[in-house]
Design goal:
Strands 3-2-1-4-5-6-11 form a seven-stranded parallel β-sheet, with helices on both faces. Strands 7-10 form a two-stranded parallel sheet. Helix content is 44%, strand content 15%. The chain contains 16 helices and 13 strands. The chain has a domain of 235 residues: NAD(P)-binding Rossmann-like Domain (Rossmann fold, 3-Layer(aba) Sandwich). Strand 1, helix 3 and strand 2 form a beta-alpha-beta unit. The radius of gyration is 19 Å and the shape is globular. It has 350 residues and is of the alpha/beta class. Helix 3 crosses helix 11 and helix 7 crosses helix 8. This is Epimerase dehydratase.
Amino acid sequence: MSFMKATGKALADVIPGLGHFTYDAKVGTVFITSGSGVVGYRVATSLLEAGHKDVRVGVWKGDREGMDKSFGQQCADALAAKGAEVIDFDWTNEDDYERALDGVKTVFCSLPHVEGWSDVFPSFLRICKKKKVEHFVKISFLRPTHDWKGISAAARQYRESVPFVNFHGTCDDLLEAAKNDSRISYTILCCSHLMSTPLIMQGKILREDHKFITASYGMGVNYVSPNDVADASVCVVLNNKPHRNKVYNLTGPGPITDASVAKLLTKHYGTTIEHVELGYHAYKANVRSRGLPEWQVKDAAAFERMKASGIDELSASYTKDVEKITGMKPEAFSGYLDNKSCMRPGMTFP
């Protein structure tokens, strides 16, 4: 559900000084790098519903494992119908960057973990500087803050242990340095585990085998709703001044075990979902058997090892940043499953 629909208010009720169709002129054209992504689709939809019409959305229409081949096109059609300018965008094709960023003042970036990231993100950021982008909002994973207290301990361990998190942290470092040689200001929204991730990564297993496979050893997991991440993103994009050059850690309402998630999935979908708890090495072998590349196998297993460490159980691993930005408390996993209004078209799971 978009932020405006959830609250039943115009954006002016959320961000003082902004009318329903009047925003900071500096926002300008917003480019969203992934209109078919879990967060990107929600951000694009909410921006358009809020009345911001200068929304350009990149959609990659290639094949996605476990998804209908027309998935990308369905997302593109749905966003175009709402008023977005939809363009083809492939992170691996640098030629797409120039066209995507032409006339853009604000970028919303949800960067996938792709091989060759050391070339991809710096190249994209270089074109952003060239095109004089003014504000860059990036989704990341939890990261240490300046005080190195509280959540910073968990974020530091994740960055040291999980290649995916280290990848995002390095990209964040590059973005933070961009202000030194360009006009770009940034807001980095660092998220804990998205509630959508297990549903996407195990979609085929959930649908066909009715199993939810983890290696978290019964420990609570810090799951955050992509709806909360999207709502925070919209608030930042449309009123960037108080959020310039800041980093936030967006977390869920508290730890929830994967066994509890399986029970919620069972109740929600009306089919018994068996929770299968594996050891680290067995889990890694299971992920490898799904045909994923080795670098993704390593990431998936490393995340489970971090969950099993119990670090997500600590109260210090949670922040008030979602509420600070949006004015609403984080959505629980059950609420996320019931929230159908902003599901991407063609998706069996949210």
